[in-house]
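Protocol step 4 of 5: obtain the predicted structure for the target chain.
Materials: sequence only (see below). No template structures provided, no constraints applied. The aim of this step is simply to have a reference model before the mutagenesis design in step 5. Sequence pasted as it appears in the construct record:
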Amino acid sequence: MAQAKYTGEDIQVLEGLDPVRKRPAMYIGGTGKEGYHHLLWEVVDNSIDEVINKHATEVKVTLHDDGKSCTVEDNGRGIPVDTMPKLKKSALEVVFTVLHAGGKFERGKNYAVSGGLHGVGASVVNALSSELIATVVREHERWEMHFERGEPQGKLKKLGNARGSGTKVMFRPDDEIFGGKLKFDPSLIAERLEAKSYLHAGLEITFTDETQAPPVVHKYLHEKGIAEYLPKLVGERGKDPVPPGGGVFYLEKRDEVARLGLELALQWTEAPDDLIKSYVNSVPTKDGGTHDHGLRAAIVKSIRNYVATHKLDPKGVTLTAEDIREGVVAVLSTYVHDPQFQGQTKERLNNPEIAGQVENLVRPALENYLNGNPNWATAVVNRTILAAKAREASRAAAAQVSRKTAISHKLNLPGKLADCASTDPAESELFIVEGDSAGGSAKQGRDRHTQAILPLRGKVLNAEQANNQKLLANKELQDIVSALGCGMGEEIKPERLRYGKIFLLMDADADGHHIATLLLTFFFRFMRPLIEQGHVYLAMPPLYRIDVGRQTHWALDDGDRDRILGEVKGNAKPSITRFKGLGEMSPDILKKTTLDPATRGSLRVTIEDAAATDKVISDLMGKEVAARFKMITENAAEIGELDV
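Step 4 output (structure tokens):
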């Protein structure tokens, strides 16, 4: 077969904004929900840059009633509208139609610091919007320009005289790029804008949600900035501060030589992990970066120096960095003169010098605070020592149940485990099944070569409320750890996992859902890497069998049953069977509906937002009844039926 000739005619040159429309993921990270909202963040960040540089005091965001368009307005200087001689176009048109055009390249001239760096934000939003209208007020005159999919629809128009100054941008993400189903999420917008208001003390942000009837208006103004943000985060986590009365370390400092500004609020809590929200020039860096590394190093070194100076070293355990940072909740806002982000979505800071600069600003100040507040310091050190002892106890317990290799099937396995023949984790699956009778059906219906069955006979412990002693004594949870073979807690080693897929197989009723929730709580708290690496699944056994003539349908719940019945055609009367539990299913039915990879349904368990997940688990499964009651009452409208 002759190959087609490859010549210069095959080389494409994408001009203007064509590269953005051809490869949007390069500029906004993807065309899903995150990319959709990233367009709004780009426009908002341009307004916030005016705030950072003391040119604006107000930002207004409106989500219009269609849920698919937004307007962002600020009272800053307004985008320039004068003609650029080289391009013979207005500066406003260039900003919205030319990649790498902007006023933020020469630091210190127009913007001392900014979140926008590459001059692509406004033009990318324009390219990926079916419609964009930019309105500018400068020098007592109002100007406006319309665009469609990045293309100007006429010239820049002068609308007349006006007071003040500022920029207003209305845009509608293009359904051709994002599909027709995506809409803006009002709660996500509100959360992001409120965080912005905390980062800039005195900034007033107004968010109007016109998708509600009547429209809902949120106003955010926090005069104390992140000093108000930290208590909110601590409260949302539902874990007591250390010491119980509080104790917040707050620092606002600037390194003039490095041209680095820093604001930090920090507190220890009883939470089992840390939460550090970091920002660079007001842009949230959810993947951290060098500023985050500098803060973490400063925390560890400060505590170690305090422990060494006051001879508080514990006997029998060594304090690790994780022990020291356990329970820390912090907000770190940095202002960097020339930030280098990883990717256009700016989720990680890469400047190598920032780590040392942040550490040098934070460490001496935190050490002084520790020495000046001995009661606070003692409580933090005691909390750290307890974390170290708990880790050592967990490691010792994990060592007892952990297996020596990932593929060995002969060591320390629970007696009730019906193991599979395969020793290859890539093809092996473990089904954790509720009850002996269900376990019996599952054992008969499984593929013995690749599928193992572990029935649960006793009560599953609530890992959110249990201490380490109770956890280590609970046979059901320890049997799970033993069967998986990878350990738990700080000593978990996912590479030793014996089964590539772990299915939680419970009855499709309230009790089954409760047991699944208890197991998910345990996995989230003590085996989270298995969830993060995609090993944990929820099996989806049917609750109903619906026979219509010769056709059989399987319904997962009442809603699924009603949908199927509504779609049934013909005169045949449906025959409906409700399964009281997995034990009622024959091995053949259980295999067909739940076990066989070719015909089963399942859901992979994922964690989109670890902090939000942590709060939900704490509220639902923790000891604090008030938090659980509040969650139920606030979401009562979304709860169809509550099984108490």
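Step 4 remarks: The longest helix spans residues 374-401. The chain has four domains: 18-220, 226-393, 402-541+579-607, 618-644.
Proceed to step 5.
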